[in-house]
Amino acid sequence: MRHIPTLQTTERALRARVCAICPNRTPGEAVHPDLPLTCETDCPLFAALPYLRQTALNLDPMVGRFEHAMHKSIHRAQELHGTQAHDCFDPLKAHTPRVIHLLGELTGHR
Fold first, then answer.
1. CA 110/CA 108 separation, integer angstroms
2. In the prediction, which pLDDT does 79 show?
């Protein structure tokens, strides 16, 4: 039986593994996985997280390639959230490998 992580579990894991190293995090703010960060309200990664989590959950582990499908989903999230501009830091792009790995672990694809 496959474990289905809640959105809150996914957010906690993201804070611990991605936010802890993100250069866009609010300066001086400590990362506590159970507490939302000030920067989350404006973060395209957190805005896209429900979509990315649901995509990861819907992917059949026996069919297709998880990483390829998640790369496509992250690209789609970039389009939806307008983070593809060259003059701004894009957390979706910068943290793609970590996000894919994290979602893979949480949804049983790794």
1. 6
2. 84
pLDDT single digits (tens) 26-62: 889 999 999 999 999 989 899 999 999 999 999 876 6
Q: What pTM was computed for the model?
A: 0.88
Nearest to 50 by CA among 61, 40, 38: 40
Which residues span the domain enclosing 34? 7-107
Task: Answer for the pair 55, 44: CB distance below 8 angstroms, yes or no.
Answer: no
In a domain, 61, yes or no: yes
Nearest to 53 by CA among 10, 23, 87, 84: 10
Indicate whether 25 belongs to any domain.
yes
Residue 100 belongs to a domain:
yes
Give SS3 for 89.
coil
Q: Contact 32/19 with Cβ under 8 angstroms?
A: no
Count how many domains the chain has: 1
Rounded to 5°, the CA angle 72-74-78 comes to 115
